[in-house]
Design brief:
about 55% helix, mainly alpha, about 100 residues
Length: about 100
């Protein structure tokens, strides 16, 4: 509701801040998953006898790919390639009111 009432400059600032926060989260996920993969490199699972670091590789891959997608969107934002209609990352549906049980 707040972002919808802001002007284009306010929406750009909010979008940029949210993207920077998401990039920070991706960095923290990458760092944590990487450190856990290193720590568990020599540990093996009891049943499959493979390195437990494989458990953390999907987190590393996700953090890198999600970070790239967010960074591309942030680049588009700061270079002015995003239209005003795209400044809100979500849109509420007005088809059914909240609390409608039909």
């Amino acid at each position: 509701m707040l972002v919808g009432r802001l002007g284009p400059a306010g929406k750009k600032i909010c979008m940029g801040l949210s993207q920077l926060l998401m990039l920070l989260c991706c960095w923290l996920l990458f760092k944590g998953a990487y450190e856990q993969a290193i720590i568990n490199w020599s540990s093996t699972s009891a049943v499959m006898e493979v390195s437990l670091s494989w458990v953390y590789f999907p987190g590393i891959i996700f953090a890198v790919l999600a970070g790239l997608m967010i960074a591309i969107d942030f680049f588009k934002l700061i270079t002015g390639q995003i239209s005003n209609a795209e400044l809100m990352m979500f849109q509420e549906s007005e088809e059914a009111p909240h609390g409608d049980k039909h």
